[in-house]
Amino acid sequence: MTSWLPLSPAERSVAIEVLVHGPLSRTELARRLGLSQGSLTRLTKPLIESGLLVEAPEATGAAQARQGRPSRPLGVVADARCFLGFKITADMVYGVVTTLRSEVTGRLDRPLTTHDPDAVAALLAEMAAVLAEGRPAPAGIGIGAGGLVRERAVVAESPFLGWRDVPLAALVRERTGLPVVVENDVAALVEAETWFGAGRGLDRFAVLTVGAGIGYGLVLGGRRVPFTEDGRGFGRHWIIDPHGPLTPTGERGSAVSLLTIPSIEYQIRAATGRDTPYEEILAGAAAGEPMSARVVGEAARALGTLVAQIANFAMPQRILLAGEGVGLMDVAGNTVHETIRAHRHPHADPVDLETKVSDFHDWARGAAVLAIQVLVLGEGPG
C-alpha cells in the first residue's frame, strides 16, 4: 500500500487532523495542534504541493464576513483512493467500498457456503474485484472477523468459523496483490467510531456491542486500548446476576446468557417449546406478552447494569451501544436507563449513551477504516 510517506511526525499529525476533522481553517488547525501560524504554514506547504491536502471551497457567507487575506479551509481529496472492507459471519460475507473519509460508496454481499480458508479467501478476492470496478485503484483491504486475531494478520481462534491459526491476510493478499489487514470485528468497529463516528474528538470513549455475542472496546487518550481478551468471548464470564439464567453458551447470569440474541431466543424456546425470532420476542414484550416481557426485562436490566459499570470504572465521556441487538432499547429503553441510574451515585452526571442501530455493513466499514489507518499512519499491516 502506498502510504503517506515520506512525512515527518509533525506533518503526519497535520494531515490526520484534517482527514478526521476537516475541512479546517488554518487558524482552527493551528489551535487544535498547538502550533504557531508560521509553523503551520511550514508544515502544510509540502502537503499542499504534493496534493495530499487541498484548499476546500469556503461557504459564500463566511468568505464575505471575513476580513483580510483570503484563506480557504484545508481538506483532503476523499475520493482519490478507495478502500475495501469485509465483515465475515458464519454464513455471509458483507463487503463495502469507501472513500478516504470512510464514506461508503458501494456494497456487496455474498453467502458463505463453506468455512474452508482457501475458499473464503477466494470469495473475498472475487468480491474485492467486483467492488473495485469503475473506481480508483483500491489502496488496501480490511477484514473484520469474530474471534481472536494476532498481529492483524492471523485469525488465531474463531468459534463462528471453526478456525484456528488461519493466515487470512496472507491468503487474501496472494489472490488480490493488495495489502490486507485483519482484526477482531469489534476492535475494527471501535477504530471506525473513534476516527469517524461517535468517538471522534473524544479523549475517553467506550463501545458496547450486543448481538450474537457481547463486545467491548475502550478508547483512552483518543486511542483504542488493545487487550488480550479481544475476541475471546469474555462476556460469558462477565457475571451480572449469579442467580440468572443458564444457557449453553454462557455462565449462569452472565452478560452472554442474559443479553445476546441466541440466549434470549434460547430462553423463550426453553419456556414455550417454540422457535421465536428475536424481533418477534421484542414485539411480544412490547405488546405485554408475559414470557417475552420477563426475558426482555431481564435483558434490559442486565444492559443497564453493564453500562453503569462501564461508566463507573472507565469514566468515558460517551458510551456507544451498537450491534444487531440494540432494538432492545426501543422496547425497554426506560428500564435500561432506570437501571443505569440505580447503579450510579445519585449526584453523578448522566451517562452520555448513544445508540446506533448497526447492520453488518457498519462492521464492514469498520474493517475498511483499518486499511485507511494503515495508509495514513504509515504502519504496514501485520
Automatic annotation (TrEMBL):
Top-level division of the source organism's lineage: Bacteria
Pfam families: HTH_24 (PF13412), ROK (PF00480)
Family: Belongs to the ROK (NagC/XylR) family.
Name of the protein this chain belongs to: MarR family transcriptional regulator
